[in-house]
């Protein structure tokens, strides 16, 4: 029983607590609603203040911004043509070198030997051609003609010796000579004279030889001799003909081709020897030289130079939406994040015709040639560029916020209501002065807004013709004058204040501070 009684008392206390909380909330809501109703009934009209600016003479520039990389426009890599041990290293980064100066060199002993061998091969080929050409000159032609004459005589003699009647007669004469020699030997033997016998024997031997020769000639020897003589004659005639024509075209081409091959081989060997040294192609500054003595050269053995007096350039990517505005020759401002106070100037030197697509975004490469680069600008840095695509100098300008657009892209500005507002923009001059007294404001005209409060009309709309707009200032071609005020926005002041420093009105609660200064403003729609 005691437990039930304690539980009931706890439930009663809980119900009473919820009741008082609910009553408290309702009370606060009633008091807040009453206070809000009081404020609405006692609120004063909102007073709007125009924010104005004067039309002034100035410059308007339209720019396209981008970020690029600084580089040398003519960075020239120099390296060895083959692998070898580096035996000379004559420069370091920052050195100024002269055209033809040896910057580095590898061991060229074998390369020098190859040049000597190539020279020897060329000399041999040239000698072979000379030998061929020497075989056809006036002297060799005369020798060929003499050989031909001799061959003709031999052929004539052979022709005569091969005549059958001549051969028969020669055989008869030889036989008679043998018979006479035999008779003479017999007589000598009878005389017993040794000397006569020896002489008769010699005569007989010779007669027998002559007899054998004539018989051989008659039996085909003369015919063979004639054929041989005729062959010699044909060869002599061909030799004279060849001497008259000179060397064969094929022989000359072959010898000359051998010379050309030898020359190419020599040139290659000489180039290899020359490429054993890295030589400055012009007066230049050494940009990089990552080499060490006695190391083996490889693909990384590169000395990079740039011509003396060479300027820097900035390579950037421009979005396809802006690239049509970029032209070669446009002025460019170059800045660095690290040195914002340093301003370098340049010009657009190259605009790519072919875009590059990266992550479905198309951009175009643009190169800016920097003129008289400062000492702070270095290759490899990131730089900001402002490409001036259009500019107007010393023109009438107003803030961009002052321009309103209506209808068919008609432009206008609002000017404060003045005693001469009806004629404020009639002159249409770009540079004419106006009387400052004409700008004195009169009592503003009030109008009732949808909330039941009254606010002044903003101002009078004046049509204008505009030119260049850089996002901050707009060029005014006609419509208003220098010094004339234009409305760029409005600022609403406080309506009613409470001791807590808060005012209600204008669609919300705005802190005013002790002096009731406006917390913000609005600008006219463009």
Textual characterization of the structure:
The chain starts with a helix and ends in a 15-residue tail after the last strand. The strands form 7 sheets. A 6-stranded antiparallel barrel has the order 2-10-14-12-11-15. Strands 3-9-8-5 form a 4-stranded antiparallel sheet, with no helix packed on it. With 526 residues, it is of the alpha+beta class. Among the domains are: 48-60 and 395-511, Beta Barrel (conserved putative lor/sdh protein from methanococcus maripaludis s2 fold); 76-107 and 276-305, RNA polymerase II/Efflux pump adaptor protein, barrel-sandwich hybrid domain (OB fold (Dihydrolipoamide Acetyltransferase, E2P), Beta Barrel); 136-246, no CATH class. The longest helix has 52 residues, at 194-245. It has helices at residues 2-42, 109-134, 138-161, 164-191, 194-245, 249-274, and strands spanning 48-54, 56-71, 76-79, 86-89, 96-97, 102-106, 277-279, 284-288, 302-307, 313-319, 331-335, 343-351, 356-358, 361-371, 382-399, 404-406, 410-415, 446-448, 454-456, 460-463, 465-469, 473-478, 485-492, 502-505, 508-511. The protein contains 6 helices and 25 strands.
């Amino acid at each position: 029983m005691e437990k039930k009684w304690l539980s009931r008392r706890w439930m009663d206390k809980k119900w009473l607590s919820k009741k008082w909380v609910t009553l408290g909330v309702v009370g606060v809501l009633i008091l807040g609603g009453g206070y809000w109703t009081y404020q609405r009934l006692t609120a004063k009209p909102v007073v709007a203040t125009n924010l104005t600016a004067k039309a002034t003479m100035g410059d308007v520039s339209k720019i396209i911004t981008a970020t690029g990389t600084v580089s040398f426009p003519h960075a020239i890599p120099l390296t060895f043509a083959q692998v070898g041990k580096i035996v000379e290293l004559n420069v370091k980064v920052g050195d100024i070198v002269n055209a033809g100066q040896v910057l580095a060199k590898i061991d060229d002993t074998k390369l020098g030997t190859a040049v000597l061998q190539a020279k020897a091969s060329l000399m041999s080929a040239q000698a072979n051609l000379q030998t061929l050409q020497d075989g056809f000159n006036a002297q060799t032609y005369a020798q060929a003609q003499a050989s031909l004459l001799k061959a003709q005589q031999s052929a004539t003699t052979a022709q005569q010796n091969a005549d059958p009647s001549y051969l028969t007669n020669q055989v008869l004469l030889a036989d008679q000579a043998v018979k006479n020699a035999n008779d003479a030997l017999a007589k000598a033997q009878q005389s017993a004279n040794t000397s006569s016998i020896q002489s008769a024997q010699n005569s007989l031997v010779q007669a027998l030889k002559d007899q054998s020769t004539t018989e051989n000639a008659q039996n085909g020897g003369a015919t063979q001799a004639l054929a041989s003589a005729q062959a010699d004659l044909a060869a002599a005639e061909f030799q004279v003909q060849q001497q008259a024509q000179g060397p064969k075209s094929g022989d000359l081409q072959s010898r000359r081709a051998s010379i050309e091959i030898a020359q190419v081989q020599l040139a290659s060997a000489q180039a290899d020897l020359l490429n054993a040294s890295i030589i400055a192609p012009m007066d230049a500054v050494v940009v990089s030289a990552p080499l060490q003595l006695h190391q083996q050269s490889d693909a990384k053995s590169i000395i990079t130079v740039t011509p003396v007096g060479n300027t820097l350039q900035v390579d950037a990517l421009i979005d396809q939406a802006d690239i049509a505005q970029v032209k070669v020759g446009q002025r460019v401002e170059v800045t660095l994040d690290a040195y914002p106070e340093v301003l370098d100037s340049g010009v657009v030197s190259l605009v790519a015709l072919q875009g590059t697509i990266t992550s479905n975004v198309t951009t175009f490469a643009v190169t800016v040639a920097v003129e008289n680069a400062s000492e702070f600008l270095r290759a490899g840095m990131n730089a900001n560029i402002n490409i001036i695509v259009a500019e107007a100098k010393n023109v009438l300008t107003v803030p961009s916020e002052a321009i309103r657009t209506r209808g068919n892209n008609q432009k206008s500005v609002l000017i404060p209501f003045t005693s001469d507002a009806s004629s404020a923009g009639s002159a249409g001059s770009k540079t004419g002065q106006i009387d400052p007294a004409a700008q004195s404001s009169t009592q503003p005209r009030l109008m009732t807004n949808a909330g039941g409060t009254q606010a002044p009309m903003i101002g009078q709309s004046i049509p204008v013709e505009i030119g260049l707009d850089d996002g901050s200032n707009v060029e005014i071609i006609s419509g208003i004058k220098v010094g004339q005020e234009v409305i760029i926005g409005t600022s609403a002041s406080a309506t009613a204040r409470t001791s807590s420093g808060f005012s209600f009105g204008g669609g919300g609660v705005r802190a005013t501070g002790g002096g009731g200064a406006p917390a913000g403003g609005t600008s006219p729609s463009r």
